[in-house]
Prior knowledge:
This protein has three domains: 3-100 and 199-260, Adenylosuccinate Synthetase, subunit A, domain 1 (Adenylosuccinate Synthetase, Chain A, domain 1); 104-195, Orthogonal Bundle (Adenylosuccinate Synthetase, subunit A, domain 2); 264-421, Adenylosuccinate Synthetase, subunit A, domain 3 (Adenylosuccinate Synthetase, Chain A, domain 3, Alpha-Beta Complex), CATH 3.90.170.10. β3 and β4 (48-52) form a beta hairpin. The chain is α/β, with parallel strands linked by helices. It is 32% helix and 20% strand. The strands form five sheets. A ten-stranded mixed β-sheet has the order 9-7-5-2-10-1-11-15-19-20, with helices on both faces.
Amino acid sequence: MPVKIVIGTQWGDEGKGKVVDLLSETADVVARYQGGANAGHTVEIGDQRFILHLLPAGILRPNTVCIIGNGVVVDPAALLREIEIVRKEGIEIAGRLKISHNAHLIMPYHKKLDSLRERGTNKIGTTGRGIGPAYIDKAQRVGIRIVDLLDRDYLEERIRMNLKEKNRILAHIYQSEELDVESIIAEYQEFDRLIDPYVTDTSLYMNKAIREGKRILIEGAQGTLLDLDHGTYPYVTSSNPISGGACVGLGIPPTCIDEIVGVSKAYSTRVGEGPFPTEETGAIGEKLRKHGEEFGATTGRPRRCGWFDAFAMRYSTLINGCTSLALTKLDVLGSFDTIPVCVGYTCEGKSLKSFPTAVRVLEQVEPVYQTYPGWKCDISQITDWKDLPVEARQYVRTIADLVQTPVSLLSVGPKRQQTILVPEE
Ligand code: GDP
Ligand code: IMO
Ligand code: MG
């Protein structure tokens, strides 16, 4: 392996949780590098279903060390709740979870500001987990970090300083109730005791592990088209989910990365607002949502659904440098007679050469489709490539050709065993 990054190539929810769980069988370390509890990574093991928000999916393997890197924004209450849930299932966390002392904290005012900003006209459709406001404070250099929990006086000073400004914004801009500074100080001072056992210099830990030849798996959250710099701005998240974000969010050098696995659904989905050229708003979208059970793992919102967008995927695999693709949810397409795939966009009658960055252009583009025959059967119990219907194999090979990246892994259901290794051509 030695260092492998798993990223989402679309708008999130591609099935990263399942893929990371599979690959973590042979990993010594699994690390998250960005985002926060906006993520919802589903892992199904036997009859158990885990939805992980902050804990890396490797936590479900007994001997894997899990890292929450400096680039993650940590909601301590959400983290402790998640640790409790996993513990109740008999999973031992002690000594296996390491949180960067440099990671920023989500504060109660971040969540409140996130939801208040969403009531305005420029709605993004966020998860309401305080992600944007926390990264704003990080960039504005007023954020509070995990390391600050260990110094009670400094923590109190920082909370008071922040609340002074945030309460004015709450009262005067949003006409909302102010937050009580004393109770926030008391709540966060208590987190010191609860989180301290996990806090460490994770960058040092990672670099040492890399030097020792440990097998490292890096788990992206969200997806490329939600990337703050490279996604469909402004309808994006506030971090860098692309593979390049991993080095910044973990404090490791780019030279150590060996493989980049792009996870992609065999169709497309998006949660929240923003352009989605291949979206199907009628019966087809409804059918994809129903068969794919497309409801948000974090917020329960229905996901918008549409066809596979090879044009957007070319862009995505390019900026991530994907060495291979893991194609998920192929089983969901089993009842369609024909399956369209978007191979390009036109705008005002002209074909576009590359994925547009201006949101107004992206809102207007018309997808150009090529249509492929469906296989019209249930493939969810097939485990061998050779046993797949020829149409399904053709669909996978076509996607690999269009995206110019080999598909190495195929998923035909949420469980570990519903996985097919794809032979090289
Ligand atoms: P993530 O955020 O990328 O980890 O993806 P989510 O967990 O939010 O959403 C993926 C959903 O699809 C979850 O409910 C998974 O259990 C499910 N899933 C993953 N792979 C497959 C698959 O191949 N087929 C089907 N039908 N469901 C899958
Ligand atoms: P995983 O890791 C899908 C979307 C939100 C919204 C936008 C900004 O499970 O793939 P935010 O709360 O981050 O400020 O919201 O990003 N979003 C996701 N969509 N999967 C996710 O994570 C997402 N995390 C954020 O719906 O459109
Ligand atoms: Mg998800």
